[in-house]
Design brief:
- With about 70 residues, the protein is an alpha+beta fold.
- The protein contains two helices and six strands; from the N terminus they run αβαβββββ.
- It has helices at about 10-25, 35-40, and strands at about 25, 45, 50-55, 55-60, 65, 70.
- The strands form three sheets. A two-stranded antiparallel ribbon has the order 1-2. Strands 3-6 form a two-stranded antiparallel sheet. A two-stranded antiparallel sheet has the order 4-5.
- It is globular, with a radius of gyration of 13 Å.
Length: about 70
């Protein structure tokens, strides 16, 4: 299920390595149901990679707030 965006916890090296992997998984539409506002300007990928993510809170609609990628 869609739980929000992760915007921190990535070093420049990790981001560069992930870019190539994510480019290969690109799709035109979200693979899960996503609130319309969250879908604007987003590039979607097939859900094949796994990351450990921590959320400081969850909103009323179930999205994660202040998401951080853990190493």
């Amino acid at each position: 299920r869609y739980a929000g965006r992760v915007g921190t916890g990535f070093t420049a090296d990790v981001m560069a390595a992930m870019r190539d992997r994510l480019d290969a998984l690109a799709v035109d539409t979200p693979p899960v149901a996503v609130p319309r506002a969250a879908a604007r300007g987003v590039r979607w990928v097939r859900p094949e990679l796994v990351a450990e993510v921590a959320f400081a809170e969850f909103t009323a609609d179930g999205s994660g707030g202040y998401a951080i990628r853990l190493e």
